[in-house]
Amino acid sequence: MADRYIEPDSPELRARWGGFAWTAENAEQAKVIVGRYPAGRQRSAVMPLLDLAQRQVGAELNTQGWLPIPVMEYIAKYLDMPVIRVVEVATFYTMYNIAPIGRFHVQVCGTTPCMLRGSDDILAACKGKGLKKGHTTADGMFTLTEVECMGNCASAPMVQINDDNYEDLTPADMERILDELAAGKQPKTGTQLPGRHTVEPAGALSNLTAMVDANHDYRGEW
Amino acid sequence: MPKVKVDGIELEVPAGATVLQACELAGKEIPRFCYHERLSIAGNCRMCLVEVKPGPPKPQASCALPATEGQEIRTDSEMVKKAREGVMEFLLINHPLDCPICDQGGECDLQDQSVAYGRGASRYHEHKRAVTEKYMGPLIKTTMTRCIHCTRCVRFSEEVAGVDEIGALYRGETMQISTYLEKAAAHELSANVIDLCPVGALTSRPYAFEARPWELKKTLSIDVSDAIGSNIRLDSRGREVLRILPRVNDDVNEEWLSDRARYMVDGLTRRRLDKPWLRRDGKLVAATWAEAFEAVAKINPGSAVAVVAGDLVDCETMFAAKKLAGALGSTLLEGRQTGLAYDFSNMAAVNFNSTLAGIEDADAVLIVGSMIRDEAPLLNTRLRKAVKKGAKVFIVGPQWDPTYPATFLGDDLAVLGNLPADVSDAFGAAQKPAIIIGGAALGKGALGAGLAFAEQFNLVRDGWNGFNVVHMAAARMGGLMLGYAQKGGIADLVAAKPKMVISLGADEVDFTRFADSMIVHIGHHGDKAAHAADVILPAAAFSEKDGTYVNTEGRVQYAEKAVFAPGDAREDWTILRAMADALGVSVGFDSFEQLRAAMVAEVPALGVEGLVDYGALPAGGGKAEGLIAGYPIKDRYLTNAIARSSPTLQRCSAELLHGETFAEAAE
Predict the structure, then answer these.
(1) Tens digit of pLDDT for each residue in B59-75?
(2) Would an 8 Å CB–CB cutoff place A88 in contact with chain B?
(3) Strand pairing class (B277-280; B535-538)
(4) What's the complex ipTM?
(5) Strand order in B305-309's β-sheet?
(6) B181 contacts in A (CB within 8 Å)?
(7) Chain A residues touching residue B179 (CB < 8 angstroms)
(8) Kindly report the CA angle at B261 between B255 and B266, in degrees rounded to 5?
(9) Using the 8-state DSSP alphabet, how is residue B246 labeled?
(10) Cα–Cα distance measured from residue B357 to residue A165, given in angstroms and rounded to the nearest whole number
């Protein structure tokens, strides 16, 4: 896991984000979220609200969004809880970005199944496109992170970019996806294999073959 | 009452006990880091693993496992031994091997437990992690690489102190303990995390690299920085007290200590009066004891003597001074230096009758004119517990942050006679209602109204006395018991125009009112009274003499002498005894034992350790009026002569209260 550090508090940060407040639309949404929890337990809403705030910051910056310190303070105040408890949550979960981030957050899975299926080549392809682990490209377009298992082992290797997964990647796919994103197009999400829809067997069935036509009872064969 | 078997010993444990507590009841030692009796259970260090049947066939964390009927617990099996060794090895993976340069060395839980339960060698050859230091203020030094993430400090500040400022950031291997934005921990109990830290991650900054625990002589003493009378231990080496640590006393301070009491220690060696001084032509010049007593004899006051006792003095000193004044024919004694003049004829009316431990059970509390966090920090932790159990708290006086939900009823004392409906409803329905009257209210004459309130809501009932006064001076209750009070307060002394005023470390008195009197100051610090004095007789601080103290709940406690007073300074009673010779009178004691015996003969309650029975509450009466404009303590770190001399507390005051910034020394 890449080292994560909170963007340090600075007067510039305060000047830029000190006035953070919900947009009219998000204010409605925040009320709905807080309303899901019993009265007096409003701090349970901290996680969805952090996500909402991150998305709002992202919309303002046209990036994936992150959580500056003043925004965390705003949420703490909104939920009437100590700031340190908000910071604890935001630093614990890696899906909250606690430092500025690019337009697309490219999260390449490097855990064993993906690695066996070639995630090193995917990372190399990213590197070829000028992406560097833990850094944002100069044009602010891509931030590359290597992450641990995202649960798509059946369609490894995979990469998550913002809210979408791209699976069954080849280095060429990776390059194409990055190019399309940079050009403002939306690449096909999910598996990149032509004949595959989700995570069904990529070729012919290799086991449970008798189940294709009928509900076969295997117990007798054991 | 479930019955369990621990290592073959069958025993009954209280309902709700954990397996760890059951083991302790059976006399088995269970190693632990994160578990602490006074904090919530975290269960994250895994050091307390034991084998429990019935249950899964693996070791279980005993601190978080309830003891149930018929459990068979083993703390001595091969599985437990192996589990402890494993946990210890994991804990030590990222713990640096820097014990020789660590201040915790010699009193470190991790050190002790790795000797007792570790496997002796590590098999870990990778890089250890390193964590940057976190700034936690002038009192707490951090070496976060040593942290084992027990989260005791996080739980203490959230649960006991009520100030959420320490948290665990990040996760897994990168987890770090930090204050928010590395701001200083700024509450009045912050340094207790140093005692709680089982390793050397949080250590005392002023005490850094001062001494090793085995070099220190440990003396049992009583804190004098407030009227709680916290039980403390003075750690001294040679002639210097190096640190003050709390002792466990569940009735008084549990095991906490306020920062002021803890860090007063370095004031004990600074600005000390170590030789007699005389005022000649308006200037203080150093003198010998012989010259000083000559000067006292020359005053020749006859019976025109008054004694003012300071906030820090012990009962023996006050009694010796009382005897001296009595031998000269005077009864002008006063201890309430700032001019308070409440009625002291019945001691029960100026006592904290609920007791500090008892107030935890209160279910409705009215605080009148007391900023408890500054005036009695450890009372606030009790009130916090009461609120957690469901107590409602109402406060009359200017706003302050009590760390728990409380309703402010405004500054006007008249509200006592005209309570809002919700307050009177709460007190009417309460099983154990209590009132706490503080110094600001006493100054406005609210004692009578408080007693009337006690009558109105029947605060004294079977097994419960809810009438409380919280004092701020360690000497107050003892002084009142010894008669250090005049009907009109210190104004009576001023009106009597005494020829000689003996100040027993009375640094808060406005001595300009005694312009025509000769002021003989028996004190230990060159503080305010020394500037006004005509004769200064250097005396011993609380750490340099045996003494009896009575805390605000009327608990008699004895402190012991840790070190000798510096230079020519002497213990107070010997000075008063010698003054009697100089003035040609007899006080009737020649040794400390005789003095104490005479004191106990006169006030028998002072001879018995523990709570004094002051009898029944008097009837109240009178109306309270007036606005409480503010609280007496303006600077919680600098409340007495010793604290004002302490560089550590001066820095706390400047940095934490007045926002000055200090550059960190490069290391």
Answers:
(1) 999 999 999 999 999 99
(2) yes
(3) antiparallel
(4) 0.87
(5) B283-286, B277-280, B535-538, B518-523, B500-504, B305-309, B332-334
(6) 9, 69
(7) 84
(8) 130
(9) E
(10) 59
